[in-house]
Here is the input.
Amino acid sequence: MARTKSQTRSSKKSPTLKSVNPQTGAALGEIVPIKPEEIRGIVDAARKVQPEWAAIAPQGRARHLREVRHTIYRNLDEIVETITQECGKPQSEALAHDVMPAVIGLEYMERMAPRWLRPDHPGRVVGSMIGLTSRVEHRPFGVVGCIAPWNYPFFLALMGVVPALLAGNTVVLKPSEVTPGVGERLREVLESLPAGVTTVIQGASEVGAALVDAPCDKVSFIGSPRTGRQIAEAAAKHLTPVVLELGGQDAAFVCDDADLDLAASGVLWAGFLNAGQACTAIERVYVVDSIADEFEGKLASKLARLRQDGHGDIGSMTTQAQLDTFKRHTADAIGRGAKLVAGGPDAGRKNDDGTLWAHPTVIEGRTEDMDIFREETFGPLLPIVRVQDENEAIQRINDEGFNLTASVWSRDRARAKRIASEVRSGSVTINCHAETAGAPWAPWGGVGQSGYGRLGGIYGIREFTVPTNVGTNGPLTMKRLFWFPYGEATTETLRAATETLSAPSLSDKLASARRFAGNVRKAFKEKL
Ligand code: NAD
Here is the structure.
């Protein structure tokens, strides 16, 4: 990893963030983290700059974000190299799932944000509200604290930062301490924005906690359910709103009429992309019994063709903790009766010399007593569960874990849509898995344990705005019908309006409307 100006060598006293290549164990660099006590000042500074940033029209803000995109183009090689080395993932994955979706999202949001941020004009209201109109403005919160994970360290940081900025907020971004080199790349591309609009702070959990407690005006968090809960609790102290994008034990259902070749390829990819370290990675595959043998055979033969050689298809784990979880989950499941279908923890590359290789493993069986039933694995372990039919599959998808995403595999589109409509999940896809994460027009978020709030599309922009109603009394000189005094004509007009709106028959409505018309002028004349 190339060292940048803002990276500093550790002094003995400073605890440093170490950047290591998990495929080789080689040290890449070190970064001195910010002190938690400095963060309040940084948030205050971002708050001072915010009105000036918000005063720029959305089109102007989008032009500034375009500069960020162009800086990514200029720095592309260095960004991809840093992600590849620091995460231990293949270059194609760094491009396909980290840099490309960031660029796609930026380009789309730059174009669409000005339209999505236009004020809404909801319908005029009748009855006692006569004459009142509304203009709903989408105003920024102020300073947004964005906290990001390490598995897609570039894309997921920008997934929160970009809509927050376009909506007129300033941002303080804390990338993951596991990928500080990528944090520096993010700092470099965000430096193309006006000074103070975005500040990147590097550090571990205590720095994230200090950012939430600063307090920010809104927190955007992408990470584990455990940290998500801690952040929600800490934010509640200040009543700070939070968007939480958390993990999942995502399910796939392979129907008996699925194209098995397609399903095996898709499930293989979605189970093992990024060595299974994806919030969207499939962690449960429900397969109808009648086709399960054939499906497993295809999966095993496709898995055998994947390369895990440092340049090929499957990278290493990124952290020791995730490697340990993978090994613990695999041993526990096999110890409790799961059958090894393909791969296995001892197959493939060994992790000696501090390297973090984990071989993709397919097992059959997933029961309540297993660790995988209760916890997200976030590693290359793919359990298959045989079911009798779609009813059993739907019930088990919904009851046996939490889904950030889920997928249905069938040749019959109508059937797949019907099944998808019964699956409880943040997103559901048909004959592909989780790809909507990279679709900038689509809402992105979870249900239940996988989080709340939405990033992506109009939902993502509006997540970072406060819908503020500017209500106007239409006619300038008109007093309101329900102001003092409450004379006879006022009461009669209010009653007639209520009846007009609630009467079931047309004749009753017309009778009430006539009474309304006969009294309304008198009622206004009564007003003080
Ligand atoms: P993590 O929760 O350990 O850390 C995420 C970030 O939170 C890091 O920057 C960390 O420093 C910070 N943090 C930790 N404790 C904190 C605290 N108390 N206060 C404030 N900040 C704190 O998660 P991780 O290991 O980096 O990422 C893996 C998890 O993220 C998995 O569960 C995965 O499913 C989930 N994830 C979700 C999505 C999504 O879009 N829903 C995307 C990617 C990853």
In short: The chain has 17 helices and 17 strands. Residues 80 and 94 are 6 Å apart (CA to CA). The longest strand covers residues 132-140. Residues 147-151, 156, 174, 176-177, 204-205, 208-209, 212, 222-224, 227, 230-231, 245-247, 279, 376, 378, 404, 446, 451 surround nicotinamide-adenine-dinucleotide (CB under 6 Å).
